[in-house]
Structure formats: structure tokens, C-alpha cells
Amino acid sequence: MAENKTLKVPGATLYYQVRGSGPVLLMIPGGPTDAAIFAGVVPHLTDRYTVVAYDPRGNSRSVLDGPAEDVHADVHGDDAHRLLAELGDEPAYVFGSSGGAVIGLNLAARYPGQVRTLVAHEPPCGRILPDAEEYLAGTEEVYQAYRTGGVEAGMKRFEEFVGLSGEEQEQPQTPPSPEMMEGWGRIGGNLDFFLGHVLRPVSGHLPDVAALRQGPARIVVGVGDASTDRQYAYRSAVALAEALGRPPAVFPGDHGGFVARAEEFAVTLDKVLNAT
């Protein structure tokens, strides 16, 4: 049974869930998603970890104090830092997916003493690529499509830009739980905020490779075995792993493999977190 809690941080109140026992494993969702995106994988980890999943500020149940505004990676990193401080003094395991992986990289670079091992699964940090200017122009095109045509136009351009348009997503091996269904229902309400205030500042973040290489935290970049180099997140993950001087860890599934292949994904994640 999950403990549902909140934490007041500057400018927002974060919603988070705590399950299981053992060392803390903080799970950071990406894009417009929230903690429920991990509902399938979490039950396979709670016998070994105290799993903490949260809604990033502005998404779902993590409400802002005032009007919506752009949220940069440093703000998200500060939120994760404050949440880990609330949970205890020991360095934690951290898993981040997509934009959540960018947040995890920011956290590990700026608050390295709080992170034991970070697994950054397919972070869309396109500024690390040789065609960084093209990547930034693409995020701007998504934003302008949203501004002129609304959420539907923005998401259509987003899927084209990131390489997911026309891609058939893997379906979950087991029926989604009620918690996950509720989460999918909330995502639609987060799309305005994602397109208007999160996509550009988070995707435009350039990880501090020097700090990540020199810090005490172990950094592992993850890629999906069903992802392709048509996808910006996959390409930037491979480039980041190369910059860090460590090969990427291969996980089952595509960009959302923890949804479609939850149990297998959890086994791989546990192995990666505890590898030496």
C-alpha cells in the first residue's frame, strides 16, 4: 500500500508516493506524465527498495503556488534535492525516464552527495548532439505549433520531431492497473503545461558532463532494446554515454519499456543499480 505524501517547496507543493522497504529508490517521470507511469514496475521493486515516485511540479497533483511559468532543469533538480533531503541523509538510488532522466542528471551534477547511482533512461538532451542547433530549432517548432494550433497540433509536431510518429508502441504484457489508468487520464490535463512551459527548458538542458564524470555518484545511461536511432532521446542517450566514457545499459522495450515490459524491466534495473 502506498503512502501518499506532499512536500512544500518554493513555488509549489510536490505530491509523492512511498512504497516498500530498503534503500531509497527515487523514480522521476518525464514529460507530461506523473508517478502513476511507474505503477507497473514499482511492485517488482518494493521487496528490495523504498520506492519513491513523485509528480514533477506542474504535473497532476504537484500544484504550483501561482500562474504557470517555464520550469528549468535547475528548478526540477532543486525539487528532487529537497525531496531526497526529506527522505533521509543517505545517498539514494535514482531512476529517471526521458525528461525525468534530464532532471536526474541535473540532480547528480549539482547535488552529487545525494545520489548513489543514477540510471538516466533515454534523456532527451539533444544539445549534446553534433546537430544540436537543429534539435533546438525542432523544439521551437513544436512550441510554435502549440501556440498557434493548440495541444493537438503541438503534440502532432512533437511526435514527428522526436521520432515517434508512425512508430507502433509496445503494449503492456499485463492489463494496466486502476492506478495506471487514472494516471493516463491525468496526462491529458498536463499537456498544456508540458508544451508551454517544460519541453523547451528541460530538453534544452545540457548535462554537466565534467561534474558527472568527476562526482562520487555512479552514472548509468540507459537505452531501450526496441528504440532506434530515428528517435532523438535514443540518439542523445548514446551520445551522452559516449561523453561519459561508459557504454549505455540496455533495457527491455522502447522509450517506455517500464510500462510495456514492467517485470523484465525491473529485473534489469535492479541488476544495473547494483552492478559494480
From TrEMBL:
Source organism per UniProt: Nonomuraea muscovyensis
Single GO MF descriptor: catalytic activity
AB hydrolase-1 domain location: 23-159
Classification via SUPFAM superfamilies: alpha/beta-Hydrolases
Protein name: Pimeloyl-ACP methyl ester carboxylesterase
Listed InterPro entries: AB_hydrolase_1, AB_hydrolase_fold, AB_hydrolase_sf
Pfam family name, one: Abhydrolase_1
